[in-house]
User: Fold these one by one.
Assistant:
Number 1:
Amino acid sequence: MAYSKAITVSLLVVKVLRILMILAAGLLTLFVIIQFFRPVNFLVAFPVSFDVYEINEGMELNSSYSKINVGPFELKGGNLRESKTIIENATGRIKIENPSNTFLLTFLILFLLFLFPVYYLLIQLKKFLHSVEEGNPFILENVKRLRIFAFLAIALTIFAGFAQFAGGFYVVSNYNLPGNLSLIHRLNINWGLIFSGIILFVIAEAFKIGISVKKENDLTV
Amino acid sequence: MAIVVNLDVMLAKRKMSLSELADKVGITLSNLSILKTGKAKAIRFSTLEAICNVLDCQPGDILVHLPERKRLRKSA
């Protein structure tokens, strides 16, 4: 049947994701531990949402920070001879050379904290997919699972948003821009995921109704 | 259930087994036993028609309505 291919592929993806997550966690922990004993120079790049505004005419942007992504536009280095340009709501990546150990440790802890619920989510997803594979998805456990998906979708995006926001403080404090450029970072929450979480709650309720419908149908001769 | 299904009497009269009836009606034996033991919540008219055809009887011969007595319903 056509739908079972989607299930098989999804199961495979879940399996791969679980392996990747464990690998990433292991490698990151190893790396942080090594850093404490034998520090190695490295670059860290992570996303930060920031507002950059008021670039005045005649201002030069050097190549190291000339690439600022502004929505669909990309501002490359060079002289800006035009009048004031205001860039708002830019999201970009900032490279930090040799972040402090405290920063690394905090990042590791937050990463692992984030990993546990996501791993649990993947296991529940696997069980959910198996129930669909067996042809009986309308069971009470699946209602509970959908509620977990919904709750985690909302909770994790909020958590990730705040974690990124907190990280931004460290970045902004260590980053100097010339002239009138100032880096102001803001909270960035993935509203799409939150919306999906709300939808999942509704779908969980629909599954609950589905269970009673199936029960009724099973007892119809 | 207040509707009771009396298949045994009719089956005995027609000298038919449960599995034979299930086979002739076209439903599974488990479904038929659900019906017989009173666990069924609903019956399709098509199924009822098939049973009556096979057993050559009226619905009233196999279905009986026993209204629950109000006195005994206090514990419900």
Number 2:
Amino acid sequence: MADWTWVLQGGPTTITTTDALQFAGGSFNGAITVGEYQDSMHVDQNDEGLTDSSSGSGNNVKYVSTTQGLWTTTTDAITNLTTGEATLKVTFTHGTNVSTSAGKFYAHQTTTGDVPTNVTFWAYEADGTGTWTTAESSSDVLSLDDQTTSTDTHDFYVAVSASPVTIGSKDFTVYAEVTYQ
Amino acid sequence: MTPEARWKVSLSNGETLYEEKGNFKSSKEERFSPWKRLILYIEELNENSEKPIEITSIGIYTDDGRTFNLPSGGRVPKFHAFFTAKKPRAFNMFKASSSGISMRRGANREEYNFIVAEAIYDIGRLQMWVEINEGKNCWTLFVPENGENSV
């Protein structure tokens, strides 16, 4: 049977089924200035106020331009991002050896399925190619690389960056999907 | 045990083969999935056959007796409409899985798993999506030629 594991890298911290992924200012629960992108990433545990991220945060890759990101302390070509530096490791596992294709990664508004409200969302798969992609609905997606080798575990390494258009917390869901044989 | 939705196919040589039965059971010891092993089996049959061996129908079944069928090159149509409908030129199967994480603490993770049978025509693909767990929900889609949602 199919299963998924989401990990915020850098801790690393596994995001459990009721945890949330948090885009924040410089610290846990810190606000992001309108029009700016996040300065830190956290796992918001389902216990009030706790963060499970080691040292308070996980890997943060900040959108700078479609071809650049800021991670560790340096702005660099986004194609130089390594898999270990990416924000998220998303793992698809199965009880048999399968190949994956038509993978997609995107965000959408939790309650309506529309483009996330008042948020600009970018994603990038750390495969050494391409640019940041707006991935804000099921029709506007980051395409994940096909993994044609039949195996029971498939890892996808994705950087994500978000910017609020208005003040206030934002409620959206980030999705990964694959087809497999 | 919760019934799972699985594929079944009929071949032009008269065989009917089922996922999780006979030589098409899931196993980590097997290099490939049951579906890929079926494709290899058909290729092997064709190496030794004068007539081409191909899939003539595909459906989805559950162990509690439910079946979902796509239009086929069937030999015993039950209604006139089945007899006169355009026959698919090929068939395919894939499975789809998705997972979503929320920005809101306490929201349960969304995960969906479907098995998809495709009947392929010159103008596009007719897809039947059945939820793998319990096989209760089913959707059909038509994907035009060169469209998305096909493997």
Number 3:
Amino acid sequence: MSEKKIRVTRRQFLKGVSAGAVAGAVLSSDSFIGRPSQGQVPPVGEGQETRAITFRVNGSLYRLGVEPRRTLADVLRKELGLTGTKVACNRGECGACTVLINGVAVYACTTLAVRAAGKEIETVEGLAQGEKLHPVQEAFINQDAAQCGFCTPGFIMTLKGFLDKNRTATREEVKAALAGNLCRCGAYHHILDAALAARARL
Amino acid sequence: MADEIKMPESVLAGPEGTRLKTWGPPEELAAVGKSIPKKGALEKVTGRAQYSFDVHLPRMLYGAILGSSQAHARIGDMDIRAAMALPGVKTVLTPADEPRLRWDAERFLLDTTARFAGQEIAAVAAEDETTAEEAVRLIKVRYDRLPVVIDPEDALKPGTVLLQPQGNLWKGQPEIYQRGNIEAGLAAADFTHEASYTTSVQHHATMEPHGCVAAWSGDELTLWDSTQGIHWVRDFMALRLRMPINKIRVISQYTGGGYGSKNGIKPFHIIAALLARKSGRPVKLFMSRADEFVASHHRPQTIQYLKAGVKNDGTLTALYSRIVGQAGPYQENAMWAGRAGDATRRLYHCPHVKTETYTVHTNSQSPIPCRGPGTAENLCALEQFMDELAEKAGMDPLAFRMKNYSQADQQKGLPYSSKGLAASYQKGAEAFRWEHPKPGSLRQGEKFRGVGMGSLLWAGNETEQSQAMVVLQADGTAQVVAGISNIGVGAETIFTQIAAEELGYPVEAVGVSYGDTHSHPYTINSSYGSRTTPISGPAVRNAAADAKRKLLALAASSLEAGPADLDIKEGKIFLRNNPAKAVPVREVTKRMGRELIIGTGRRPANPEGFKVDIFGAHFVEVEVDGGTGSVKLLRAVCVHDSGRWINPLTAESQIQGGFIQGAGMALTEERVMDKRLGIQLNRNLHEYGLPTVLDVPESVVAVDPRVRDVSNNINAKGLAEPPTVGAGGAIGNAIYNAIGVRIRDYPITPDKILAALEGQRR
């Protein structure tokens, strides 16, 4: 099966993008504050030049070098080891990767990490205060709102972001707020029950 | 509970010739029958739960698979130079590698003939996912195309390309079942009726895609897998790789959805292991969402032609079905395309029944069990058909079904271990406030309302071995050790309830561990078929009984009583004839020293002379928008005769979730495939039509008809699949009742509704 190949290298393409790339060495994993990286140093060669970004995740400041093409979901999961944020579709369709950026729910899989520079990110790992759970988390446990649980962090972050700003939301408004999160196990009814139980406690 | 059958003695067989107690209704029990939150829920809501997708090992590589872009082709030259030259690529596997590993008798793991689009033909491992995916794209393949056949009815036509030596009909002939004499049955009828139905492909679309992490250490392999059963994965890996079982360790603490797609292994498991071995590094190989649509396999499409003979009083005299199911090109998994006849054969009483099942090979991925395989497809057709017959007989749909109630299993001629179908009809009608208006009569402007119901049957579990352990700790706590996976339904939680009930411990004192073949000996091969509770639950009860027996033997000496004089309740050991004389369990267990009490238990066989089947009924109200053709599910009542509900909270989750999956199958989910090229065009969740929170009814009420089952010591039948198989028929019937036109092709999408209304207007 033949395809017409577009003869542009990655570097040529990137030069056309104003990314403010920092020239020089790849920043290694110990140049940021916080948890040591569990992995990825980008391979040399075809990788992009990394860019230094600083952001706050769950209250902690991180400074790291990331390639502009990396998604926020991937950087959170790999560089910061925060695997609570899941990637289920990687194209902004299911909401499993939902995190809050400056209080607003976004799909981390379709957010470039560099776009989060200078911002406050909240992931599911940051919700509990030690072992004191957030009301949304407790409600999910008590209402059995998590079946396989893979969609659960995304739902919880969407709900947290929504309820922070909408304490008096109706059931219909809560439903609409959750429309961007898919649950294949079909736990929607218990998820709504949990949302309303949490709303009552906030 | 209604109509109690006596518990067969064999079912209550306990350790060392003892007899377990017959458990009464939930009101009499301490832990079983209680709604308690699941173990592991805390981990899920805090992001601590580690799925195989989350496993990250030092120096780990990422794998990607090249799937054939052609549905039927010979794979010619493969040029991997550009892929190998890509920085970050460490290993490439192709069909040219020696030694050539077989997948099964029909094909090599990486074969040189592709028979469905997506069939694995090469694989790479690289430093990151992006590089791996790019490397796959850089592999140049020469495909010598062969003719493609996708439609099963096309595949049966003469002159079509043959995918198997005996032709495209699996086994060379249809599978025929007969009971009585179908011609005589039809002749005895006052009227006959026939109709043809189609159901479409449904994808599991698990949120966590298929995948695994493979890591070698010497000649030992560790595999973190997203699976429904760690033991089956281990055993199949050992078989395919020709390794001793004790050199393979499979770990799965949390699995992000399975619904039948994640049983045993698929080619990618072996590919991951080989990539890891060849590269000398751990390899994580997970499907992209697009690849997941193929890698997971799917529920097959079916065409069901039904014909019945009926007496004027509504009695069925004959039931015939010709079923066509779309299989893949291989023998493996073909059987799943030929299962859409069980309910036709057995659900309703009928002396003359014949089914002819044509399982047809095509150049599409093979089917695989998908929640309620075969029966979900079957009931979508059969339940609408029953309503058609009821209407022709001038009877209420519920009354028609009661008229054709079967007191015993008609295939084996055995009484049921329990049958709560009548109770389901009655309790469901009550909870739903069932009244059946004339079709099309409830209309307000462009909005049509309607109600529908359907029966459901799901084949109960046959006898099967299972074992478990219960460990008593010195401080009065206990641990259930179960060789199962956690697929999110709460099996591990109900095991603690069962153990607590048998031990007499508070349920908070009982923990459970599972999910690692090294530490958790076999309890079940894989969680499918709605059987983890009825198969493994009784083994857990017996293990707890064994632990209790040993504990009471230890207690007897210090309490100056015989073990038979003692019992345990609420964590206290007491004298039966003087309950006030009690000591906390830990006063006894602390004297164990370093010799733990480990109870082991096996599951007794099913009792002879009974058929185990699972029943229920769904009642649904819909509103159809005549302007847009969209169907809004207003409410549902789902009654499930599954014997004892061990945990009503998690049972409700299963019922609501299963109903939504059945609703998706009925209304929105569909694989769109290019029939010439054999390529799926909608390999993403939105275009595929996965239900969102906006698509579900305001309420799905779960009702327990509370009919006692006698087939095992916990009185439980399965509950996982019945909620899915019951939804489609009831929804189809409700739509007919709303608009007065019957749509027999699933999914019942807006275009079909609009076409039906248009046809009605003309």
Number 4:
Amino acid sequence: MKRTSGLLPRRNLLKYGLGTLGLASAPFAFDRRSNAAEAVAPKRLILVYSPNGTIQEEFWPTAGASETDFTLNRIGEPLAPFKDRLLYLKGLDMAVVEAGPGGPHQKGVGGLFTNEQLQEGVFMDGDGSRAGWANGISIDQEVARWIGQDTHLTSLELGVRAIDNEVRARISYAGPGNPMPPMNSPSAAFKRLFSTYVGVDDALRAQRSLVIDSVAKQYASLQPRLSQVDRQKLQQHLDIVNEIERRMSVPQAACTAPTAPEELADDDETTMDRIADLQVQLLGAAIACDLTRVASLQFFSAINEIRFPFLNSTGTGHSLSHSSDSDLEAREQLVVRHRWMAEKIAALMTLLDSIPEGDGSALDNTLIVWGNELGLGNSHSSTDIPFLLAGGGAELRMGRFLQYQSASHGSLLTSIARAVGVPLESFGNVASPSTPLTGLG
Amino acid sequence: MFLLKSRARIASLSRFGFETPSFGGSGRTLIPALALAWGLTAACGNSPPESGADAGVVAPPSAVPSGAPPGSSMVPEPVPPGGTVTCSGAGVPSEARLLTRVQYDNSVRDVFKGVISGTWSAVFPAENEVMGFGTNAEFHRETPWLAEGHMVAAERVSDEVILQLPNLVACAAEANEDCALAFADEYGRRAFKRALLAEERSALVELYRAGTAQGGFERGVALLVQSLLQSPQFLYRIDTSRAEQPPAGNGYALADLELATRLSYFFWNSIPDDELLLAAEAGELHTKEQIALQAQRLIADPRSQGMLLDFLRQWLGLGRFQSLVRVSAEASAGAYNAEWEESLERFIEFALLGEGGGVEKLFTSPRVFLNAHLAALYGITPPADVPADGYFAVDLPGERSGLLTQPGLMALLAHADQSAPIQRGVFVRDRLLCQPPPDPPPTVNQMPPQVDSSSTTRERFQQHTASEDCASCHRLIDGLGLSLEGFDQLGRYRTTENGIALDLTGEIYAVRDESIAGTYDGPVELSQRLARSSQVEGCIVTQFYRYAMGRVEQEADLCSLSQAQAGFANAGGSFTEMLVAMVQSDAFRFRAEATEGEP
């Protein structure tokens, strides 16, 4: 998939649906090689989440004679065109969820990308137990501290009907108890990406700086009269505001904003397929314009009542995931749902592969990580979490199916960071092993 | 008129200042059967899954907060009519509260005297929700997305302000610094909910000058507006007064201006108006009587309706109407969603908030509000004189009795293709009785049984939960939910299903208010029991407290909850009088800890 042209060919935009976003009519002539400062292509990380466990037999490939010899099964089939860029990692367990407050879905979704337990709190899980937020930063946000500083957005959190505003619908954390909410509306995400920062001229930037400086003075005037709790809360707020000022000023390659996607109800089974497509396209556009290098795409909340009538699957999400293994009809519904998510990941990979970068494509420099808070929905198991790496990363040999014996998922998180150039030795809860995974290179 | 002072006998409860101990106890709602869920080791309804290492094994909860079992809620002790509740004045902790989207839009509207308005917050993320409420002080915090939203919204508001400047300050034509300062003083006082401090004012002057240097008077004022709207003094409600050291064991009394802000956000979700600010500035807003007088005024203002609607939507989960899917020959996806919500909100407004409204009417009124589309669905002939907005009221005694029998609520609490007795029972327990039941163990199959035209929903669900392991918990839920089988997934009244006569008997079981416990027949009788229950009143107090005070109730809140409940008891279950009592409670008037800083 080598490319020589520095410009994104118009035909690809149309082919992969960016035309509907208007990208083709206003081609973002984004020529990374024209930017002398970036002789080395940037590394990127995209986390993808889906809830309630998977159907193990259809998620994992069938192993052949060697690591590189494997046959995709029904969930993975849509990714077949990129088989040599997939790295299936079986046998990773989420030991971190064994202890601490909360129920299995809560602990799983909170621990998946943080390798941390949950705080005490009042969010209720499916089994009645209660917990708060995850007690640590997530790997995307940690990575963003290293590789997310040179773009307008440090990170971008997108969702598809991840509408619950509590621990069950948060995968990304800026720090302990500090979740990053996903944007479920493509039109809102579009505005944030392409009108808050892109196209802002020097005069507006200067005005914003003046206002932010003045706001900082108002904070300073309040500070001596604040309780300790309030002081901390407002300091965090001020830090975020100051970050906007910094991010606003990072040098940005030229990028013409596409026209906006349509407004859609963001919690609706008749729009969710379209929303998923638009979110994938926005993610591609954000990367093509280098507006962010760290992102997540979250399908739904852990525990949900979502149906897929357009796939003739009308069971409701969480209930369906609790079906017995012998319920073949329910199982089939779950397979087509996970396969649908694999199709969206394949679309994202296709899009990234169409963006030229150096001698290859943006896909070469983007690591996509697909995970789930459970191994199996009907038993709430935290073993054999369905992890799939896709795209490319430093020292990652793709095109393989690796099977570990109860390795810690914390180790994977550390390895993810290293693959995008962030030299961590460990990540998250000290009691849950997180030394880098062996055998990835 | 609301009277706090008791006329009748003073009841007991020493910990709350009563004289005899007959109401002793923690006030916490405990269900003995709650413990059963943790002991379950087998699945309900279905056999355990064949695969999975931990199939069939349920771990006990590993971290239960001391004394509070998971899922417990607290409701105040019953207070007899005429009772007063005296608390220690210790107050509860006060934490800076970031404006919600509703509060942001209201506040901007009122800062600029209604001259400009808009849904500026459309670009903000939804608030994090705690027990259904997005107002929790601890959990609603700034994020990068929200901060960018605050910036963009402030810029848009400032554009509007500049266009409307002549309507906002008389001196607009003079376009000089004096005018900008007059603007800052007037609108800064409203945005900051008090007069600007010297250093706040000088920061604004400096910004105005810098803006003017860039783009003249209008640019200067625009930047000043942007700064006001992004300052913590506007975006948060913060108690910063340094009150005198209170007597031992007591909390700090809030300053009059802080009470003005608490009152206006409590009743209006917005900034204090001039009358509140003037009363506070004159030092006339701290006695219970002064507070009650203002509360009566605020609740009579139409702005309180918006607040109450916001509360109802969160309390009853009405946001879910947006994505509701109900399948039947008559209803395609979404066809009735907005109408069901409208119908339900009109009913609650009528029954709880309207003339003579209160808890009893909420559960016993036979009224429903329909438009022609809904009327056709329910087989009602609209009257000749339907009001212009399309909705008319009709009384259906015997068929409908209050909230639980409302078409919209029954449609909300349903599966796509059949009623949902479990959801309905859980709703009554969690939202109306404040006794949320434990959820099923993880191995349970939560799929509703397949629709089957040869049986009733009750029969199918009962089969599903018949095993001994399930039955103990389901007794808590099903005894409430199964009588509501009198309504299908579209909220239609029915006495038969698939030609089989429905059994609508039920049992109110393991409730704190024993006067309502026992078997009953049909949704009307269930509603009549709830209508006279002190536990339902107490639960409504708790739910509103969570919403308005932005806290999940703890031991320290219980006495104040009882003070609010006394408002119900003393005014025959009047919801608005309960609110007036709540703002006179200790939790509203005191805070537990001092702010720091220089003396």
